[in-house]
UniProtKB/TrEMBL annotation:
<keyword id="KW-0378">Hydrolase</keyword>
<dbReference type="Pfam" id="PF00293">
    <property type="entry name" value="NUDIX"/>
</dbReference>
<dbReference type="GO" id="GO:0005829">
    <property type="term" value="C:cytosol"/>
</dbReference>
<dbReference type="InterPro" id="IPR015797">
    <property type="entry name" value="NUDIX_hydrolase-like_dom_sf"/>
</dbReference>
<protein>
    <submittedName>
        <fullName>ADP-ribose pyrophosphatase NudF</fullName>
        <ecNumber>3.6.1.13</ecNumber>
    </submittedName>
</protein>
<dbReference type="GO" id="GO:0006753">
    <property type="term" value="P:nucleoside phosphate metabolic process"/>
</dbReference>
<dbReference type="GO" id="GO:0047631">
    <property type="term" value="F:ADP-ribose diphosphatase activity"/>
</dbReference>
<feature type="domain" description="Nudix hydrolase">
    <location>
        <begin position="47"/>
        <end position="180"/>
    </location>
</feature>
<dbReference type="GO" id="GO:0019693">
    <property type="term" value="P:ribose phosphate metabolic process"/>
</dbReference>
<dbReference type="InterPro" id="IPR000086">
    <property type="entry name" value="NUDIX_hydrolase_dom"/>
</dbReference>
Length: 218
């Protein structure tokens, strides 16, 4: 495949070849040969990822349910929104995954769900994307069994205004959580209209999920 360059922003960055370098439990690394403007090609490393969902679960008092969880790559616990991977196969929708993760991490369910924001987390090298939901009308479920890092996880309820302060104080640094907290604060000011859960998600990752499904059938 070759691309044409008729002006800024019109080039078709076609892929002439691709090779798999690594495949693990939650991601794969491939190298694509991409056609650049002018016709030359350049290699681009791409991390394929399941993608994920996260939830701003807020009670009637305006408090957000957050979890404090150990994150091994940085070596300490972070205060985060409940979140998890889209790793259960094609039958589970993104909002169903959000419901599952909220129950597994906080023992909560919600009656009302809306889309807050969609995030492409680091598009310079990965297709990893995440959809953030606002969940309200909360009620408590039977406590879930938790293992590994989640067995050490604690749940904290933080008022929305206090969560915003913690973002700017550097106490909440998880990118997903920062985006969710600031998004719900903006929504509270009436500046935006939140989308329904059925709203299209253009960049929902599919490459790694399809790769895993192909492997399972071989």
């Amino acid at each position: 495949m070759t691309g044409t360059s008729d002006g800024a922003g019109t080039h078709d960055f076609g892929v002439r070849g691709s090779r798999l370098v690594y495949e693990g439990a939650i991601l794969a690394l491939r190298v694509d040969e991409v056609v650049m403007p002018g016709g030359r090609t350049a290699e681009r490393e791409v991390v394929e990822h399941f993608g994920a969902v996260a939830v701003v679960a807020r009670d009637a008092q305006g408090r957000i349910a957050m979890v404090r969880q150990y994150r091994h790559p940085i070596g300490h616990r972070l205060l985060e929104l409940p979140a998890g991977l889209l790793d259960q196969g094609g039958a589970e929708t993104a909002v169903d995954a959000a419901r599952r993760e909220l129950a597994e991490e906080t023992d909560l369910a919600a009656d009302r769900w809306r889309v807050l924001v969609d995030l492409d987390l680091s598009p310079g090298f990965t297709d990893e994307a995440l959809r953030l939901y606002l969940a309200e009308g909360l009620h408590t479920l039977t406590a879930a069994e938790r293992t590994d890092e989640e067995a050490d996880m604690s749940i904290e309820w933080i008022a929305t205004d206090e969560a915003v302060r913690k973002v700017f104080a550097g106490d909440i640094v998880n990118a997903t959580s920062v985006a969710g907290i600031l998004a719900v604060a903006a929504a509270d000011r009436g500046e935006v209209t939140l989308r329904p859960v059925e709203a299209p998600w253009r960049d929902e990752p599919s490459a790694f999920r399809a790769r895993r499904e192909r492997g399972a059938h071989q």
